[in-house]
Specification:
The protein is α+β, with helices and mostly antiparallel strands. The chain has 2 domains: 267 residues, Beta Barrel (Butyryl-CoA Dehydrogenase, subunit A, domain 2), CATH 2.40.110; 198 residues, Butyryl-CoA Dehydrogenase, subunit A, domain 3, CATH 1.20.140.10. It has 17 helices and 12 strands. The strands form 3 sheets. A 6-stranded mixed β-sheet has the order 2-1-10-11-7-6, with no helix packed on it. A hairpin with a 2-residue loop joins β1 and β2. The protein binds flavin-adenine dinucleotide. The site of flavin-adenine dinucleotide (FAD) has 21 residues, from β5, β7, α15 and α16. The site of flavin-adenine dinucleotide has 21 residues, from β5, β7, α15 and α16. GO terms for molecular function: oxidoreductase activity, acting on the CH-CH group of donors. Pfam families: HpaB, HpaB_N. This is 4-hydroxyphenylacetate-3-hydroxylase. Keywords: FAD, Flavoprotein, Oxidoreductase.
C-alpha cells in the first residue's frame, strides 16, 4: 500500500469502532465534531508526506516493501540515519507546534525501541514479532497509539489490580484478553493500539505480562473517551483546541481476541519487564524534538503577546522572554545530545568494542534524552507558559469573535480593545491563542500531559537515583572525603 493520503487515512477510520464520547456512541469518528479539527491536522500530515516540498524529509525508501515509508519508521544504521530522523521529527513537530504529544511518530519511535530492547536481552523471537509489526506499519502507513498504565483502582500497590488487562484464554491461534488500560492519547483517531508494559510484573502475574498490537475496531474493544475540548467554536476563538485536541481514552478490552501474529509477549515475565528497559533511544529523540518545538512556539507566542500590549518594550518583560529564549537554546543542545546518544548506542550494539573507543563512556550510562524529558522539558515548558501568563496579564481573559463582529458593540471593541498600533482584531486573535494555551480546558490538559506523559514523575526520578551515574557521582565525592585532612604533602 505504501504512503497514504489524508483522505485514505480518514477513510481507514470509518471502521465501525466502538467509541464513546460526551455520553454518546459515535458511529463514524470522522463525522463527529469533536474530532474534526484534529483529523484535519492529521490528514494534513499524511498529505505532507506526498508533497514534494516535504517528502525528502518526511519519507524514506523501504527496501523490504519496495515503497516509500515515513522517516519516523526508519531503523537507523548510523549517525546519518539518526540525523534524518531528527530532521523529520523536528519538521513534523513544528508543523504541529509541539502541541500533539502523541503524533503517530511517538509510537513509531517507541516500537523501534521495543525491538532494540528485546534484541539486546536476547528475546529474539519477541523482537522478530515486533519487527513484523513494524514492517506492517511501513507497508500500511498506520497511525498507532498505546496504552500502558493499569487502572487507578488501587494505587496502594504496584501489583496489577484485577481490573488490569490480562490473558483469560489461550488458544492455538491466539489469546483472549480482558480488563482495562489507561490513558490512551490519540486512540479515538488512531488505527491500532500497542498494549505494553509500565509497572514491572512479578512471579504469579504471568497473565498480566501481556504485550500485543490490535486494530482499534477489534470486536470487544471499547474506546471510552474523555470529554471533548474542541466544541466547534471556530478557529478564531479556539485556535489550539480547534486543531490539536488529540483525545484521550480509557480502553476496555471486553474479551478481545488477539491473533497469534499480533502477540509480542504473553506470560514471559523476563521479556515483559525488558520491553523498553534496554532501548537505544528513538523515543527520547522524538520526545525531545516535540518538546523543543513546543518551547519554540511558546517563546514565539509570548513575544507576540508582549508586542500586542506594548510590554515587549520594557526590560522587565524582555528579561522574562530572554530566559525562555535561553531555555530554547538549551533545548536545542539537549535534542542534539539525544541524537548523539542514539547514534552511540546503535554503534555499540553493532560493535560492543566501540564503547571503549573514542566516546569516553559507554552509551548505556548516558541518558541525555530521558533526563531531558524527565527533568528539563516539564520545567522549561511550565516556565514558558508562566511567562506567557505574565506578559498577557488579564488580556488572556478575553471576549470572543462574536463581540468583535457584533453590530451593536463591534465598533466599541475596535475602539477600546486595540494595542499599540495594533488593531483590536489582531489583538483579540493573539489573546484568544494565549487563552487557549493558558486558561482553556485544552491548556489544563496540556499541563497535566507534560507532567505525566513519561509516566509517574516520582518513579522516573528514583530511577535516576539508582542509575550507575549516581554511584559515579558518589564515588567522586568519596574520593575527596578519603583524601585525608593533612595540609602538607608527605
Ligand atoms: C494527559 C495525559 C495523557 C496520557 N497519555 C498516555 C498514553 O497515551 N498512554 C499511556 O499509556 N499513558 C498515558 N498517560 C498516563 C500516564 O502514563 C500516567 O498518568 C502516569 O503513569 C502516572 O500514573 P497515574 O496517572 O495513574 O498516577 P498515579 O500512579 O496514581 O500517581 C498519582 C500521583 O502520585 C505520585 N506518587 C506516586 N508514588 C509516590 C510516592 N511514593 N511518593 C509521592 N508521590 C507519589 C505520582 O508521582 C503522581 O503525581 C497519560 C496521562 C495524562 C495525564
Amino acid at each position: 500500500m505504501g504512503l497514504r493520503s489524508g483522505a485514505a487515512f480518514m477513510e481507514s477510520l470509518r471502521d465501525g469502532r466502538s467509541l464513546y464520547i460526551d455520553g454518546e456512541r459515535v458511529d463514524d469518528v470522522t463525522a463527529h465534531p469533536a474530532f474534526r479539527g484534529v483529523l484535519t491536522t492529521l490528514a494534513g500530515l499524511y498529505d505532507a508526506q506526498l508533497d514534494p516540498e516535504f517528502a525528502d524529509v518526511l519519507t524514506v525508501w523501504d527496501a523490504a516493501s519496495g515503497e516509500a515509508c515515513s522517516t519516523t519508521l526508519l531503523e537507523a544504521r548510523d549517525h546519518g540515519d539518526v540525523l534524518a530522523r531528527q530532521r523529520c521529527d523536528r519538521l513534523r513537530t513544528e508543523l504541529t507546534y509541539g502541541l500533539m504529544g502523541r503524533l503517530p511518530d511517538f509510537m513509531n519511535a517507541y516500537l523501534l525501541d521495543v525491538k532494540s530492547s528485546l534484541e539486546h536481552v536476547g528475546k529474539h523471537q519477541e523482537a522478530a514479532r515486533m519487527d513484523a509489526c513494524l514492517a506492517r506499519l511501513r507497508r500500511e502507513d498506520l497511525a498507532v497509539t498505546h496504552t500502558l498504565v493499569d487502572p487507578q483502582s488501587d494505587r496502594s500497590t504496584q501489583d496489577a489490580p484485577p481490573e488490569a488487562v490480562r490473558i483469560v484464554e489461550r488458544r492455538a491461534d491466539g489469546i483472549v484478553i480482558r480488563g482495562a488500560r489507561l490513558l490512551s492519547t490519540l486512540a479515538p483517531v488512531a488505527n491500532e493500539v500497542f498494549v505494553g508494559p509500565y509497572a514491572p510484573r512479578r512471579p504469579g502475574q504471568e497473565d498480566y505480562a501481556l504485550v500485543c498490537m490490535l486494530p482499534l475496531d477489534a470486536p470487544g474493544l471499547k474506546i471510552v473517551c474523555r470529554q471533548a475540548y474542541d466544541r466547534g467554536d471556530g478557529l478564531f476563538d479556539t485556535p489550539l483546541s480547534g486543531r490539536f485536541d488529540e483525545g484521550d481514552a480509557i480502553l476496555v478490552f471486553d474479551d478481545v481476541f488477539v491473533p497469534e501474529d499480533r502477540v509480542v509477549v504473553a506470560g514471559d515475565l523476563d521479556a515483559y519487564n525488558n520491553v523498553v528497559r534496554n532501548a537505544v533511544g528513538y523515543g527520547p529523540l522524538q520526545g525531545a524534538a516535540r518538546s523543543t518545538s513546543k518551547l519554540k512556539f511558546l517563546a514565539g507566542l509570548a513575544t507576540v503577546a508582549a508586542r500586542t500590549t506594548g510590554r515587549a518594550a520594557s526590560p522587565r518583560y524582555q528579561e522574562e522572554l530572554g530566559e525562555i529564549m535561553g531555555l530554547l537554546n538549551v533545548a536545542e543542545g539537549l535534542l542534539d545530545g539525544a541524537a548523539l546518544d542514539l547514534s552511540r548506542r546503535i554503534g555499540e550494539r553493532r560493535d560492543p568494542a566501540s564503547a571503549l573507543r573514542g566516546h569516553g563512556h559507554p552509551g548505556e550510562e548516558s541518558r541525555v534524552g530521558i533526563a531531558a524529558l524527565t527533568f528539563f522539558f516539564p520545567y522549561a515548558i511550565a516556565k514558558a507558559v508562566e511567562v506567557l501568563r505574565t506578559v498577557a496579564g488579564s488580556g488572556a481573559i478575553v471576549m470572543t469573535e462574536g463581540e468583535l463582529r457584533h453590530e451593536e458593540i463591534g465598533h466599541l471593541v475596535e475602539k477600546y480593545v486595540h494595542g499599540p498600533e495594533i488593531s483590536a482584531e489582531r489583538r483579540l486573535q493573539v489573546m484568544r491563542m494565549v487563552w487557549d494555551m493558558t486558561c482553556s480546558p485544552f491548556a489544563a490538559r496540556q499541563a497535566l500531559y507534560e507532567r505525566y506523559y513519561t509516566g509517574d514523575p516520582v518513579v522516573g526520578r528514583v530511577l535516576f537515583f539508582n542509575a550507575p551515574k549516581a554511584r559515579e557521582a558518589e564515588a567522586l565525592a568519596e574520593r575527596l572525603l578519603g583524601a585525608g585532612t593533612g595540609v602538607t604533602p608527605d
